Amino acid sequence: MNPIPPAIWLHAATPALSGQAARLGQRLARAGIALRESDKAGPVCRMVLMDEANPAQLAALAAQGEDDCVFALLCCAKAPSPAASWTVLAAGAADVLWWPDADADPAPLLARVQRRLAVAQLAGSDAVRQTLVGRSAIWRALIEDVVEVAAFSASSVLITGETGTGKDLIAQAIHQLSGCGGELTVLDCTTLSPELAGSELFGHERGAYTGAVGARDGAFAQADQGVLFLDEIGELPLPLQAQLLRVVQEHKYKRVGGNSWQPSRFRLICATNRELETEVAQGRFRADLLYRIAGWRCRTPPLRERRDDILPLAAHFLAAHAAPHPGCELDPAVRDYLLTRDYPGNVRELRQTVARLWHRHCGCGPITLGAVPPEERAPASMAAPWPDAAFAGAIRHALDQGMSLARITQASADTAIRIVLEQEGGSNQRAAQRLGVTDRALQIRRKARPADGPPL
Ligand SMILES: Nc1ncnc2c1ncn2[C@@H]1O[C@H](COP(=O)(O)OP(=O)(O)OP(=O)(O)O)[C@@H](O)[C@H]1O
């Protein structure tokens, strides 16, 4: 990796803090770190000096934008309370540091900046962007997390998510980014039969059972010095789960029919589309195994939570088909069709949809609506019209009550926000994605509610 160029942008949340910001700038310069003169070019770490978590200073923090990493430096004599730190974090800070003295040693700050910029550089590299396609905020946040855990830790990783959301791709990326030099060994737990599972996992000695004419390595031996990916771990029968406990924790195992412990230095990645907590509660998955495999967890979002990625993904899949005909495009009506249809099979379904369009398309020029197979045309065209009679009735009722247009507009937006937040389990990020606004815009809107209004 290339050395990370200094890329720090300092901002004082209030004019009273500009002196402190200048002193910190000088301190950073003495440590060999030049500040960015412009905050526009390339990834940058923003540092916002604040002295209070009040709405004006939180807004100054939020205004730094959402594409870069923002550190909040709380320049106050007394350490901020945990509640204040959480509030600042919720306003969009990547971290909150107490910074009582502008002349303090900037080493802790610089370590964080170096890490964030290294992560941003890797996440923005061609290798990552061309494999893990997506530009939505929720996808970019996931990729940054994946890069950080893959390249800067040796933790086991549990990837959960619906079918076709990219769990397999993420596992491959973690292997590549981990730089371990060893192989990626993939074992699909749905294919393990109870009779042969021991041998598949641990290998066997010669003569261990009828038919074992020679000794054989299993997955844990093959994954030594590399990465072991246990796909569909939620399908593993309980007796096999028990057999994994020791090897996952102590990194040593016995071959079937063998007596000696064999070491294996592997990094473990597991994936499942099951909710493992529910499986544990229902007695189908061992809690002790769950805690061992979930050193770090990530969730690949379904395509409906990242609709901004539909067209970039479609272009990516089309480019793979249309390589001999570069520049092949989708007609606007086809783009609209792709944007409005449902994808229960997620990205895999989108990929197959694009393949079908490509196969039905002929000649030069853009792919047009005729390429949509007849049996797939209904969903977009049959979408219920909106606004409908029920909506008009609700508006009529509000007008009858003497509500102003401003009040009706605000109530409609607040209702939409409340419903989406409820559906998304309170996740601001996912709600913002569905509403088509930025995370920060939604946070600010939620905070700006009058004290006497219902909470959002
Ligand atoms: N972000 C992405 N960029 C490019 N291709 C993607 C992306 N996400 C998924 N895909 C493609 O979608 C298909 C399904 O992805 P993948 O096999 O990784 O999903 P999965 O979550 O492991 O599915 P399952 O649970 O069914 O095994 C693959 O062809 C993969 O290349």
TrEMBL record:
Q: What protein does this entry describe? A: Sigma-54-dependent Fis family transcriptional regulator
Q: Which UniProt keywords apply?
A: ATP-binding, Nucleotide-binding
Q: Where are the transmembrane segments?
A: none
Matching entries from PANTHER family are given as: TRANSCRIPTIONAL REGULATORY PROTEIN
Q: Which GO terms describe its biological process?
A: regulation of DNA-templated transcription
The record's annotation in Gene3D superfamilies points to: 1.10.8.60, P-loop containing nucleotide triphosphate hydrolases
One of the Pfam families matching this protein, by short name: AAA_lid_14
Domain annotation Sigma-54 factor interaction: ranges: 132-359
User: Which superkingdom heads the taxonomic lineage of this protein's source?
Assistant: Bacteria
The family database entries (InterPro entries) matched by this protein are listed as:
AAA+_ATPase, AAA_lid_NorR, P-loop_NTPase, Sigma_54_int, Sigma_54_int_dom_ATP-bd_1
Q: Which GO terms describe its molecular function?
A: ATP binding
